[in-house]
Amino acid sequence: MCDIMSSLNNKIMTTKEAVSNFINDGDMVVSANFLHGTPYAIVHEIIRQEKKNLTAISCSSIEELDLLLSGGCLSKIITSYYHRAGGKTYNRELDRALKDKQVEYEDYTNFTMYNMLKAGACGFTFMPTLKSVIESDIYKIRTHVGENKFKVINCPFTGKETVLVPALNPDVAILHVQRCDQLGNAQFWGSLGTIKWSVLSAKKIIVSCEEIVDHERIKRSPFLTLVPGFRVNAIIEEPWGAHPSCLAGYYNVDINYRSVFFAYALSKNANDSFLKEWIYERTDRKDYIDYYISRFGKKPLELLKVNEYMSDSINMGYKQLYWQDGLCIKLGLTREQYNELAEKYGELDLYNE
Q1: d(CA 254, CA 240)
Q2: Alpha-carbon gap, residue 60 to 30, rounded angstroms
Q3: pLDDT over 70 (residue 5)
Q4: Can you give the residue ranges of every domain in the chain?
Q5: Coarse DSSP helix, strand, coil percentages of the chain, rounded to the nearest 5 percent
Q6: Tell me: the pLDDT tens digits for 269-297?
C-alpha cells in the first residue's frame, strides 16, 4: 500500500514541471475554468516556457487568450466568448493578431461548445445541438474547422433535421480548484459553467489548487469532487494560482490589477512591457505574489480575501454493515458462531444461495 501511495504522490509537482512534462508544442489545450478560478499560474508558465503552435480552447476568456497570444504560443483559437473591454474602439492582442492574420479563430456559442466537450468526455464522436444555430453567423462563418464545424442529418427517430457538432478531445486540460488531495481528487465549488466537461474531455489533466488537503477531508464532501484522482496527471499546490480572477471561498476579482492590464494592452509596446514585468521576469507564482506585494503592498491582497460564509453541514454517516454481519443477523448467529460453521462447512455464497 505504501508503494502505491508513493507512486500516486509522484503526481505532485511544481507548475514548471507539470507544464514541461505534459504540454508539448502543437497541443490542443483547454483552459477548463469558466470565468472563475482561471488557471493563470499555469498560463504564465506556458508563456515562460515558450510553448508554440498551440490550439487554445476556452469557453469564456477574459485575458488569458491575449496573454498566450502575446507570448507567441497560439496558432488557433476555439472559443465562445472573449471579453472586449472598451467596445469596438478598444484593440487588444487578439484584435491585432486577427488583423495581421497571425491566428485562426473559430467562433461557437457556449451551448455548442458545451455539447462538443461533453461528447468528448463521454466518448462520443458527436452531439446534437439546437437547430436555431443554423440561422446565425456562428454556423455560416467557418475558418480552420471548415466543413467539420457543423453537420446536418435527419434524425433516425423523427426524421427531423438535426444539427450536430463534433466531439472535442483536447490533448491537455488546465484547471485551478480550491483543494485537492494527494491522489488527485480535485474539489471545486462556485460557478461551474462548462468546467466539468471541459476538463474530463481532455487526454491529460493538470490541476493546480490553493491547498493540498488530507484525503479524509475530500471524503467528507464527495459531491464537490469535480475530477477523480485517477484522471489527473499533475497536482500543483499553488496559492493565489487564479489571481487576478476570483475563487469562491478564497479571494475576489482583483479589479485594480486587471484594469492595469487592460490599460497596458492598448498598445503592442505597453503589452510587451506588461509581459516582461509580470511573467518573463517572474520565476514562479510565489515570485509573482512577492513582486505584487513589493509594488502595491499587502493590503490590496488582504482586501481580496473573502469573508467567511460557511455552507450548511449535512450528515454523511452510514451504518457500516459488511455482508457477513448482515448474514449473521439474518441467521440469528454471532460472528464467532458463523466463523465456526464456515470453517466446518465452507463459506456461504450469497449470490447463489
Answers
A1: 11
A2: 11
A3: no
A4: 2-124+169-304, 319-353
A5: 40, 20, 40
A6: 999 999 999 999 999 999 999 999 999 99
Residue type, 314: I
β-partners of residue 106 are 78
- Tell me what pLDDT residue 251 has: 98
pLDDT score at 351: 40
DSSP state of 24: -
Q: Tens of pLDDT along 78-87?
A: 999 998 777 7
| Architecture of the domain made up of 2-124+169-304 | 3-Layer(aba) Sandwich (3.40)
Could you list the beta-strand ranges (E) of the chain.
28-31, 54-58, 74-79, 104-107, 126-129, 151-154, 161-166, 172-180, 186-187, 204-212, 225-227, 234-237
Q: Write 136-143 long-range contacts (CB < 8 A, 24+).
A: 136/109, 137/107, 138/107, 138/108, 138/109, 138/112, 139/163, 141/107, 142/106, 143/104, 143/105, 143/106
